[in-house]
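Lab intake sheet, docking and co-folding queue.

SAMPLE TYPE: protein with bound small molecule
LIGAND NAME: zinc ion
LIGAND FORMAT: SMILES
REQUESTED OUTPUT: full 3D complex as structure tokens
PRIORITY: normal
SUBMITTED BY: R.K., bench team

The fields below were copied directly from the construct record.
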Amino acid sequence: MNRLILALILVLNVTGTAAVAQDLAALARVLPQGTTLRDRGDGVELRLRLSQAVPYRVFTLDQPKRLILDFNEVDWSGFDPATFGQSARITDLRVGVVRPGLSRMVLDLGAALAVKTAGLSAPPGQPATVLLQLAATSDAEYAANAGAPADAFAQPAPTSPAVTHPRQTGERPLVVVLDPGHGGIDPGAERDGVIEAELILTFARELKEILLRTGDFKVELTREGDVFVPLEARVSFARQAGADVFVSLHADALVVGRATGSTVYTLSDTATDVASQKLAERHDRGDLLAGVDLRNQDDVIAKVLMDMARTETAPRSDKLATALVDGLRATVGVRKRPHLAAGFSVLKAPDIPSVLLELGFLSSPRDLKRLRDPEWRQSAAIGIRNALQAWARQDAADALLLRK
Ligand SMILES: [Zn+2]
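RESULT FIELD (auto-filled):
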């Protein structure tokens, strides 16, 4: 099993207890001096200088080809990819935080490269150096060795017991899980200095306040800060929170089409249009960027069970989408075709009515201006609040009818 080179290094500092405590408290920083990427013709050499040694690991992923370097943990603020060096075989490079305790560097590979050697040296009292030697390999060899390791920087895995949460009948507060899209290493769309991940977290907090004021809702957010949350984890979070509804919030930039206005998406195998399809692909790419691969998650039996649950949930999601369109139309207006369908992974909870709301599109100058305006956002939040109240009443009445 030559599938990964795993290196976990425990560092003992011998300069005194106070210094040890300090070093452990401070994150390792990347030192620009001596941090280089070089294409040597026969291979690529990557050298990272760190203020202190930290556990790290390296592995490759296929389709698309990526090299992942994980650290436990590194402060990237002193790192500038522009001065790092270049190689035609490294087409792009990103760094960021996957979650507390796990910092990641992702290199997009333009060619099949294998990790020939990987090592960390840390002379006493001096900065540490991580040195990787990459060598050309065949596509077949690359594919055979690619794959993410079992999580060495273990965190308790999210347990997802098959909790059956009773359908709401209006006798208790409606549990709303708001899912601010993107975060951390995946900032989402960006226009004129406005970052989707930030903007939408602000809106989620504002919306939460407005919902809580009614006393009709219990509200949870899938992320509270600028952290990366895998799509699958967002869905299991909703299930564990006992969500009655799941609303994923976004403000994307569209590559195709010139959409403007709020749009509500529900899950479908076939996208309503090309723009919806592209949007769904881009959202799923956020997980690819972070190295999480969900392609083999469903086996046949699980799929059948999920399809059965979806048959019951899909009409409830559709009604939720209709309510949201009505609510937003009455306060801030909506897109011309306000309810669309696409295969967003985040909407795949089979048993929770789920929608993805594009509050507006950062690619539209008009939307951008509105999204930045706190008053506009408040009106939008009120529209959503009204929609959730109307939907909850109708949904409870439907549930009671089914019981009889
Ligand atoms: Zn988005």
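REVIEWER NOTE: The two ends are 59 Å apart (CA to CA).
SIGN-OFF: pending second check by T.M.
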